Amino acid sequence: PQPNVHLEQGRAIARLPSGDSVEVLLYGATVISWKSNGKENIWVSDAAKLDGSKPVRGGIPIVFPCFGPPPKDHATGKLPQHGFGRNSHWEYLGSSSSESGALAKGGDDSIKLDFGLSHQQLSEDTKKAWPYEFGLVYSVTLAKDGLQTMLNVTNQGKEAFEFQMLLHSYWRVDDVTRCTVNGLGSATYIDKVLDAKEQQQSTPELRITGEVDRVYKSIKQDITSIVQDGKSRLDVQRDRIVDSVIWNPWIEKAKGMGDFEPNDGYKNMICVEVGAVDGWQKLEPGETFEGGQILKSHL
Ligand code: TA6
């Protein structure tokens, strides 16, 4: 049988002959499920809104054109935290299946879904808040045990603009206290839980024993792995981007989010996010930026 795609309830669902599948909500072009070998790789809160009333708590929200609360004196200053990518209605542009590309190995087929968002599709308020003519194409490619999500940004206007981008991925784990995040040894990071000072990680592994909110910059090694009980569970490879955020809200912050359920759900997730969030990417008219993640599941 061929890979297949179908649209239902405002989402695009792709399935491979192997049974691996991916589900993308058109709202925010948010990946809300990626199953490999019948097991779910993605964490989504039981109280996540999937009706477009607010960004999905979980999945892979697209952060664009700003990461975090935007600086007031910056062109993105009037946008909400993490920008508008994750709370806009994207267009499904279609699918293509292929036997080539970064993911399809050894003849396994892969299927690519494309989603689009441009200036014209934004609400009037958002257009006013950030009046630049941009075009986004987000590609989600499913292969056996693999997923690739890539954001392509084009400046379609006459003025240069600056942006940040980040794929705010919530990964599912059985027990975060039995996990380590590997591959960030000696990388430089800002610790948003402590005093937002720049630090250098001294250990090869990051253990999660409390709230973690770290912005790693210019990471040399392109693969960051989630390891549970000493066994690699998920490899996250940065593709043409070099920054990552590691986040776990832990007990208090999890309780403080109305759409984060169950309250102890922090034990079953870890955000390993890839992006370009250190400073700003500048796009001249007509220029394009592309960056994303290549994921390998060992579930
Ligand atoms: O990626 C980590 C982070 O920036 C945290 O500081 C926290 O704010 C998280 O994103 C969630 O943000 P949200 O706007 O989705 O509640």
Brief sketch in words of this structure:
The protein contains two helices and 22 strands. It has 299 residues and is mostly beta strands. The protein has one domain (4-297): Beta-galactosidase, Chain A, domain 5, CATH 2.70.98.
Descriptive account of the structure:
With 299 residues, the chain is mainly beta. It has one domain: Beta-galactosidase, Chain A, domain 5, CATH 2.70.98.10. The protein is 4% helix and 46% strand. The chain has two helices and 22 strands. The protein has helices spanning 124-129, 250-256; strands at 4-8, 11-15, 21-25, 30-36, 39-40, 62-63, 91-98, 110-118, 134-143, 146-155, 161-167, 170-172, 179-182, 188-191, 198-200, 205-207, 212-217, 223-228, 231-239, 243-248, 269-283, 288-297. The strands form three sheets. A nine-stranded antiparallel beta sheet has the order 7-8-9-10-22-19-18-13-16, with no helix packed on it. Strands 6, 11, 12, 14, 15, 17, 20 and 21 form an eight-stranded antiparallel beta sheet that branches. Strands 1-2-3-4-5 form a five-stranded antiparallel beta sheet, with no helix packed on it. The mean pLDDT is 95. Residues 55, 68, 81-82, 168, 192, 213, 245, 247, 271, 273 line the site of 6-O-phosphono-beta-D-tagatofuranose.
